[in-house]
Write a structure and sequence with these properties.
Blueprint lengths: L1 H31 L10 E2 L6 E3 H4 L4 E2 L23 E3 H15 L3 E7 L4 H11 L8 H4 L25 E8 L4 E2 L22 H16 L2 E3 L6 E4 L8 E2 L5
Parallel strand pairs: 1-10, 3-5
Antiparallel strand pairs: 2-4, 5-6, 6-7, 6-9, 8-9
């Protein structure tokens, strides 16, 4: 009798698990129908309280989000960007504040060009990459790479660390001369010239890249070697979660 009761409870549990799994599969299938979302994406559409506005924590930092306007590799505003407000997780912002303080003593500020990026913006990148007729920014941003190869070369992906809230794209700003520092390429240039250790930089450009890299790494960030401007906080709070709230 006890065995029968146990088997009955076990059967109910299995049915419940199967129902949940089928619900998940249904949700994933509906996302796949749009041709944009990876099947293993843990997507959250609400901003948690520990993803904070950078400008409120670091008032002196410069923020100029490139995907809010048209000066980017798409040549137009990107879906999900509505205001020039940079968001990151609180640990990432606290680390950036330390970087900002160190650089200010050397005559520089950080210039943030992208921070948290909604997943819908990543979808917009993917849709753009699949449109072979749109190459209006090729000469400026990816002159040496066929558009159809941007995926396989690692410049575009169906999910981005930016959407986890602890990745930032930034450069140096010269406080004395009030201008961007020469880093050897424009930020978001897609090509080997953007690799952090590219041998074609001048000695001055190399010094600038290393100053940014070493200062960021000293405060807990890791550089993506193909992009001198791209850094992710090590030990990020949301390593498996992707957010989709608008930047506003």
């Amino acid at each position: 009798m006890l065995l029968l009761k146990y088997l009955k409870r076990l059967t109910i549990s299995i049915i419940g698990l199967v129902s949940v799994s089928m619900g998940s599969i249904s949700c994933v299938s509906s996302m796949k129908g749009k041709g944009t979302s990876p099947s293993n994406l843990n997507l959250v559409s609400v901003r948690p309280p520990d993803i904070v506005l950078i400008q409120e924590v670091i008032p002196r930092v410069r923020v100029d989000l490139m995907y809010l306007g048209s000066q980017n590799f798409l040549g137009r505003p990107v879906v999900g960007y509505k205001k020039n407000r940079g968001y990151l997780t609180k640990p990432a912002v606290d680390a950036l504040a330390r970087v900002q303080n160190i650089l200010e003593r050397q005559g520089y500020s950080l210039l943030i060009r992208d921070a948290y990026r909604p997943q819908k913006a990543v979808h917009d990148f993917v849709r753009w990459s699949e449109d072979s007729s749109d190459n209006k920014m090729k000469a400026q941003y990816y002159p040496d790479i066929p558009k159809q190869e941007l995926f396989e070369r690692g410049y575009i992906a169906r999910k981005s660390g930016h959407s986890r809230g602890s990745t930032v794209d930034l450069t140096l700003w010269d406080l004395k001369n009030s201008k961007e520092v020469d880093m050897g390429t424009i930020l978001d240039f897609l090509g080997e010239q953007s690799h952090t250790d590219w041998i074609g930089t001048t000695s001055e450009q190399r010094v600038h890249r290393q100053l940014l890299k070493q200062t960021m790494e000293a405060q807990g960030f890791k550089n993506y070697s193909q992009e001198w401007w791209h850094f992710t906080l090590e030990g990020e709070p949301y390593p498996q979660t992707y957010f989709d709230f608008d930047v506003e």
